[in-house]
Amino acid sequence: MLHRCTAVLLLALPFVAQAAGPAAVLEMSADGEVQIAPDGHVSDYRLTSTLAPAVVALVDRHVRDWRFEPVLVDGKPVVAKTRMTLRLRAEPNGEGAEQFRVRVVDASFGDPRHVGKMAIPRYPEEAVRRHLGAKVVLTLRLDETGKVADVLPYQTSLNMRASSEQEAEQYRRQFERSSIAAARSWRFDLTEFVNGKSMGATVMLPVVYNVMNLGERPKEGWQAYVPGPVHVAPWAGEHVADTRDVAALPPYEAAALDSRVHLKEPVAGKLL
User: CA-to-CA distance for 137 and 155, rounded, in angstroms?
Assistant: First the structure.
């Protein structure tokens, strides 16, 4: 995982009080596994992230109260188990510089995890010479073993404007061909099981290209991209409209589009 913060979030944060200016807003991710009973209640749950005890207690109480739509197989409700990723935000509560309230920013389910050595796409030589970077968001169809059964580019964005749309398309195609060639060798650990079986998955995954000189540090802050056209894969058409913001996905992290698990009520924005 990229930029995971663990064991830093407390309800009282002394270091914030020492800083000048307004208190910081903190964010972190919390990963875990949830088992859903046929009637939709959480029958088992565990966190896999290492978090501060105060946060563990808040998350635990919140998750165990969740209710899901029953997961059906042939019209009958069954047991389902899925990976859970929570994005959390700690905000000043206005009562003191050290006092925070914790809110759920987003909850996602069934995101696969890459296993083994991940082949990194080859950087197109012509793009290197021009110091041209890109973000290629791929749509992957994974079979029940986690292998990539099919892959297509969803959207390719360049980090600078080309002299013409024809030139931009030429560079987009180069980045896409390189990304697809690498992706065909990837394999993932599927994290969602329905009635004890994996059904495969449809996911999106960003690949980022960035040219840096020797000794140069990666750029921080906002990254500008010129968005290219969107291409919806035939096998993903019914899922793409419901996916979370693909532009916000960290590089090389897969986001499931077709989880069978759905909360009865959204939890984004709720306080823990």
Answer: 5
